[in-house]
Amino acid sequence: MSKTISILGATGSIGRQTLDVAEQLGLTVTALTANSNAERLEDQVRRFRPRLAVLTDEAAAKDLAVRLADTGTKVLGGPEALTEAAVCPEADTVVTAVVGMVGLKPTLAAIRERKRIALANKETLVCAGQLVMDTAEQYSAEIVPVDSEHSAIFQCVQGCRDRGEIRRLILTCSGGPFYGQTAEEVAGRTKADALRHPNWTMGPKITVDCATLMNKGLEVIEAMRLYRLPLEQVSVVIHRQSIVHSLVEYRDGAILAQLGTPDMRLPIRYAMTWPDRAESPLEPLDLLSCPPLTFARPDRETFPCLRLAEEAAQEGGTACAILNGANEEAVGLFLAEKIGFSDIPRLVAEARAAVTVVRDPSLEDILAADRAARRAVLDLV
Ligand code: NAD
Ligand code: MG
Fold it and tell me: Less crowded by CB within 10 Å, the N or C end of the chain?
C-alpha cells in the first residue's frame, strides 16, 4: 500500500480526486505539480503541506513562490521540475495525472527510482508503452492503472497466475455524447456539444477524445501494452451506462467483470491500496436501482478515430506516437475553435500518412515522431 505520494497534474480532474482519496486514506503528500494554475495549487499546498510544489509555467511559478513565502514548501518552475517531483525521495508512489505526452520523461524517471506508478496518463503508454513496460520490468517498478477500464481488468486478473489463460480483454465504452448520430450530424458538433459527456466529468482533452472515440482507441493500445497482448485479444463493446467497467474472458469461457457507479475515486483508491482494499465512504452500486445494462457494437465508420488507433496499434513502431501527437495537436485546435469536429480524424489520418514510421524506436525516435506528427497537423491546417 502507498504511504507517501507525489502527484503530477494535481490541479486536474484526476489530481483533485486523488487528493480526496489521499485525505480519506491518510496518505502523506510530498509533491504537487500543475501547469499554470497558481491559485488552485496554492490552496492544495495549504491543505496538504507538501515539501515541493512545481508549476511548469515559469511566470506562474514565480507568482506561486510569492504566495507560498510563509510556508515551508519549496517552489520550482519549468518543465524539468516535473521530473524533480517524480523522483522525490520521500514518495513511494507517483500518480501520473498530467494530460499528454509531457508525462513520459517524468514517468520513466520515477520508474528508475522504483516508485509505484499509479498511471492515469494514458498518452505515455500509447507513445512509449514498450519502453515504459520494459523499464518497469528492469527496475521492478509497479505500474498500477488508474484508468477505469484498465483498473477493472487489473482487478479481474488478480487471481490469474498464468497470463496465457486470458483469451481476450473486453473494454467497455460509453459511446460518448454523439452515440447513435449519423456522420453528417456528428460533423456539425461544436466544442460545447463535445464537452457534454453523459457519465463522467473529466478534463477537456479526454472529454473530446471520448466524443471522437479516440479515447477508446488510446485505451486499446494502453491495454495491449499493460497486459502485453496483441490487438486481436483486445475488443471494444459499447456500454452506455458505464457500470461494467471492463471484462476479462478466460480460456475456459469464464468472463470476469468489475462493476461500480462511475466514480474515478474507486480506481484511484485501488491504485493506492493494491494489493489490499480499504474501507471507503463511497456509496456502492445498488443493483436493484441501476438501469438495465446494454451492450452494442462500436460504429467505426461514424467514429473513425477508433479504427485509426487500431491500425496504428497493428502497425507498431512509432505509429502510435504519431497517432497520439497528431491527436493531441488536433484536439488542441478543436478546443481553440480553430477546426471542426470531423477535422480531428481527418488530420490524424493525414498526419499518419505524412510521417514515416520507425521500427524498434528509441526514446529519441518516439519524441521525434511526436514532434513530426504535431508539425504535420499544423502544416495541414
Ligand atoms: P485535466 O485537464 O483535468 O488535468 C490535467 C493536469 O495536468 C492539470 O493539473 C494540469 O495543470 C496539468 N498539465 C496540463 N498540461 C501540462 C503540461 N504541459 N505540463 C505539465 N502539467 C500539465 O486532465 P484529467 O482529466 O485529470 O486527465 C489527466 C490524465 O488522466 C489524462 O491522460 C487522461 O487521459 C487520464 N484519465 C483521466 C480520467 C478522468 O476521469 N479525468 C479518466 C481516465 C484517464
Ligand atoms: Mg477510461
Answer: C
- What is the CATH number that goes with domain 4-145? 3.40.50.720
Cβ-count burial of 332 within 10 angstroms (0-12 exposed, 13-18 middle, 19+ buried)? Answer: middle
For CA atoms 298, 121, 198, 328, the dihedral sign is negative
CA distance 307 to 299: 9
Confirm or reject: Cβ of 218 under 6 Å from ligand 1. Answer: no
The rounded Å distance from CA 272 to ligand 1 centre is 18
* Nearest ligand by distance to the CA of 201: 1
The predicted-structure confidence for 249-281, as pLDDT tens digits, reads as follows 999 999 999 999 999 999 999 999 999 999 999
Options 1.10.1840.10, 1.10.4160.10, 1.20.1250.20, 1.10.1740.10; CATH for 316-376 is 1.10.1740.10
The per-residue pLDDT for 199 is 81
Of the candidates 150, 113, 137, which has an alpha carbon nearest to the alpha carbon of residue 267?
Answer: 150
pLDDT tens, position by position, 52-70: 999 999 999 999 999 999 9
**CB-CB neighbours of 195 under 10 Å:** 16
Give the bridge partners for 255, in sequence order. Answer: 249
- Ligand 1 neighbour 147 (Cβ under 6 A): yes
Distance in Å, CA 161 to ligand 1 centroid: 33
Q: Which atom of ligand 1 is nearest to the CA of 98?
A: 7
All structural domains of the chain with their residue ranges: 4-145, 148-303, 316-376
